[in-house]
């Protein structure tokens, strides 16, 4: 097992750098039952830091699967009202939310994708109000992961369950910089690097990005007033937090009507417990008009059919191929990690905070500015060491942003 001391450091990092918990603030933690030991450390530390209440929502893969296998459709498609109220009340009270995400990527592989799609959609619809709190940075929130047995064995199939969990702990600890003497200070430095990169891109103010790689030829307009973000974010109340740990990306939004061409995935996508792999999407005026998938085609179809916005893009993120996640050489089958090994784009809702004044705009205004809306937001990976990206400026000049999967642009300021 990874040492108690290391777990304490990780828990502390999640509370300080992740959600940046304040005195007398409430904390909600979504955690796997298999990670109860780690979760208890988080809870103890949160109270030590002055949390007024820590509320845990336990999740468990086996129980989730049993529900999918046995519950009638009406249960699957009815997201409980009390759960919505719990989240809404919590957010209104200014609580912070820590998600510990460690699902088995193959959990729902034998469940009818239609059933899964219905459940995902019902949950997304019900949680629409709560999502405004997170996607507009109205509250502090963070996503981290800890190893669980099934997930670890998916990554290390040749190892025993125990060894696989140990190996995954080692990989995660390194990637989230908990192996360093002072992880909080290491994250401060990392956030400063990402901040410089996004400031360089904001100054460039590209009108268009052009992606070229095997199976990819994509032209992507960026809306006027788009903002590159990355690393730490700030709540409306001025609290700095890190939505994702790890995070290696700087990201902005594509124009919802301005994407043309074809893009191919470079890593498998774990979508709500089902894998979609080796797929490509073809866009016309921002909308997916054709798609192919070697694995998980049905799941991809359901994802695209969620609503109109699910066929358009809501995020573009640049991650150099030599990021620590990429250097681990592992495929995690978990977007939190895989997206930070690779450039990626997202189908579905854009973050309004990626547009100047976007947080204060209503749906009509957002649409006018090219900001996509949807019930869903799903990142998928398109980066590789063969990816080149050009940036096209307002005066029509073109410059290299990425070559061979890494920065060609000087983003060190
Ligand atoms: Zn992203
Ligand atoms: Zn995303």
UniProtKB/TrEMBL annotation:
GO MF terms, alphabetically ordered: aminopeptidase activity; metal ion binding; metallopeptidase activity
Swiss-Prot/TrEMBL keywords: Aminopeptidase, Hydrolase, Metal-binding, Metalloprotease, Protease
Biological process, per Gene Ontology: proteolysis
Alphabetized Pfam families for the sequence: Peptidase_M29 (PF02073)
Superkingdom classification of source: Bacteria
InterPro entries the UniProt entry points to: M29_Exopeptidase (IPR052170), M29_N-terminal (IPR035097), Peptidase_M29 (IPR000787)
CC cofactor: Co(2+); Mg(2+); Zn(2+)
Keyword Protease: yes
Similarity field: Belongs to the peptidase M29 family.
Name assigned to this protein: Aminopeptidase
Origin species: Virgibacillus profundi
Lineage start: Bacteria, Bacillati, Bacillota, Bacilli, Bacillales
């Amino acid at each position: 097992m990874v040492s108690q001391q290391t777990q304490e450091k990780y828990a502390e990092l999640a509370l300080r750098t992740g959600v940046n918990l304040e005195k007398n603030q409430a904390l909600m933690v979504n955690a796997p039952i298999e990670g109860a030991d780690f979760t208890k450390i988080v809870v103890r530390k949160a109270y030590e830091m002055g949390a007024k209440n820590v509320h845990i929502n336990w999740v468990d893969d086996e129980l989730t699967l049993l529900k999918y296998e046995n519950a009638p459709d009406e249960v699957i498609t009815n997201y409980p009202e009390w759960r919505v109220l719990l989240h809404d009340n919590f957010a209104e009270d200014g609580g912070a939310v820590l998600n510990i995400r460690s699902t088995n990527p193959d959990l729902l592989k034998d469940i009818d994708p239609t059933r899964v799609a219905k459940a995902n959609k019902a949950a997304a619809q019900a949680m629409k109000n709560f999502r405004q709190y997170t996607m507009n940075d109205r509250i502090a929130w963070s996503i981290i992961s800890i190893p669980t047995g099934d997930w670890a064995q998916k990554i290390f199939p040749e190892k025993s369950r125990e060894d696989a969990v140990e190996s995954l702990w080692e990989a995660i600890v390194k990637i989230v910089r908990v192996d360093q003497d002072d992880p909080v200070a290491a994250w401060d430095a990392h956030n400063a690097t990402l901040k410089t990169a996004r400031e360089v891109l904001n100054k460039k103010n590209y009108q268009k990005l052009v992606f070229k790689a095997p199976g990819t030829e994509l032209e992507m307009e960026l809306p006027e007033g788009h903002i590159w973000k990355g690393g730490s974010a700030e709540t409306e109340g001025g609290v700095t937090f890190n939505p994702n740990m790890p995070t290696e990306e700087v990201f902005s939004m594509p124009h919802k009507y301005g994407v043309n061409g074809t893009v191919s995935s470079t890593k498998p996508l774990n979508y709500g417990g089902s894998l979609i792999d080796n797929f490509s999407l073809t866009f016309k005026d921002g909308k997916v008009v054709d798609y192919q998938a070697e694995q998980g085609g049905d799941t991809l179809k359901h994802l695209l059919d969620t609503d109109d916005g699910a066929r358009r893009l809501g995020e573009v993120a640049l991650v150099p191929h030599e990021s620590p996640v990429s250097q681990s050489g592992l495929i995690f089958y978990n977007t939190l990690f895989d997206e930070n090994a690779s450039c990626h784009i997202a189908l579905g809702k854009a973050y309004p905070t990626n547009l100047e004044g976007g947080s204060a705009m209503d749906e009509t205004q957002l649409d006018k500015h090219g900001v996509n809306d949807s019930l869903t937001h799903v990142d998928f990976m398109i980066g590789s060491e063969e990816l080149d990206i050009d940036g096209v400026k307002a005066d029509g000049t073109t410059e290299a942003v990425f070559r061979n999967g890494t920065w060609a642009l000087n983003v060190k300021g």
